[in-house]
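Chapter review: from sequence to fold.
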Amino acid sequence: MNNQAFIDGQNLRFSTTKADKAWNVDLKRFRAYLDRKYNVTRAYYFMGYQMQQHAELYRKIQEAGYILIFRQHNEKMNTIKKGNVDTDIVFAIMRKIAEREKFNKVILVSGDGDYYKMVQYLIEKNKFARLLAPNEKRMSSLYKTLEPKYYAFLSRPEVKDKIALKKRGKEKTGSA
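The token string follows.
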């Protein structure tokens, strides 16, 4: 299998750290989980915009095995830039399909309902494996109309135990 994962980094972080019982994802463990469970050969991690003070985080994300993609912004903008990556993810996936890139299926990591139409299309074309919603309570109700085989929750104990950041004294690996 040659599946590809597309991760909405902001949704992943917000949905886990703002959960009733906040937790962090261990990016190395999560990447290994994606590989083992979903045969992911490439994992694209989308982030809002690049900020120099977060260079260490970006390095850790890449070292954990993700392809890091930032949202493009006009450098002349003086206002705070929004980190919304939804259209970037949709465009990246649809471009792969339009250009007939060889891959089997998409795994989408987000609970954001903005992806719903794309998910429906990918299911129709047999190009969708699973939506991995970081938080069951924050997943859009739109996805609940899909067959349950198309979504899973990272917050479920059996999954969370495999991907959560474990505190090791003062040492930590990269987290989302």
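Two observations follow directly from the output. The helical segments are 9-17, 27-38, 55-63, 86-98, 116-124, 157-163. The mean pLDDT is 88.
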